[in-house]
């Protein structure tokens, strides 16, 4: 059986880094991809975390929430997408908008079965 390709979006966050580590621990069955957002900029802690994941076997996929086609291209490379971006809150609803952009990219890519 072929390994599943799993993309973790939000892989440097509180929950995301734990999901990435758990996925990497299943390397016999899963190839772990982590979305490297261009918007991340030079947040040194996040960059170091991403490169530590890469050293452990993760594949980094660069994409941007402001570039729909890059998200679609990222999704087309995998079998499963796990989004660990928070849903936002009244003072910061932007996270929910990012999730909606990801859902649109998943729909357009057409290779991921969406479960609600």
From TrEMBL:
Gene3D superfamilies: NAD(P)-binding Rossmann-like Domain. Signal peptide: none annotated. InterPro entries: NAD(P)-bd_dom_sf, NmrA-like, NmrA-type/Isoflavone_red_sf. GO terms for molecular function: pinoresinol reductase activity. Residues 3-113 form the NmrA-like domain. GO terms for biological process: lignan biosynthetic process. Belongs to the NmrA-type oxidoreductase family. Isoflavone reductase subfamily. This is NmrA-like domain-containing protein.
